[in-house]
Amino acid sequence: MYEPFVAKEIFLTKGIGRHKEKLASFEEALRDAHIAPFNIVPVSSIFPPGCKLIPAAKGVKQLKPGQILHCVISRNTSNEYRRMIAASVGVAIPKDGKNNYGYLSEHHSFGETDKQAGDYAEDLAALMLSTTLGIDFDNDTTWDKKEEIWKMSGKIVRTTNITQSAICVDGMWTTVLAAAVFVK
What we know:
- The protein has one domain (about 10-184): Pyruvoyl-Dependent Histidine Decarboxylase, subunit B (Pyruvoyl-Dependent Histidine Decarboxylase, Chain B, 3-Layer(bba) Sandwich), CATH 3.50.20.
- It contains four helices and nine strands, in the order βαβββαβββααββ.
- The chain has helices spanning about 20-30, 55-60, 115-130, 145-155, and strands spanning about 10-20, 40, 45, 50-55, 70-80, 85-95, 100-110, 155-165, 175-184.
- Helix 3 crosses helix 4 (about 145-155).
- The protein is flat and about 50 Å long.
């Protein structure tokens, strides 16, 4: 009988790559993130019920070269001299994480620092989770007010992000990536 794959563990990773060739810069970013020897399959944004967030080093040890990896991945690439690029994955886990799912969000931007892009991705994941938990607020509410409402609701227990930003150098493609990697 077919057993559906539902990850029991997820790890977060990030990387940066630079090369004169665009594709090679992506490969360098995958290497920096320690996920180059795998076949990456992008997936959408659900953090499975009962899933644990583990350190990247522990997660990578469980993988085999050539393996298909399901990842929520954010990536950004440019060769525009001095352009700042960022890629971020945000995480929001509900208080009852054993029975309810959480959210992962991807955000890639230009001109944002690690903190700016990371905060945005984290807030986006919390926003998506809050809508499934029945936390109501006006769409015009400021981010600070939304965060206060989420904390007061007691329904969101943890948010975090992983973010990589970089400034492009002359004559090179720069790729940044952030990923949440699903592990059995």
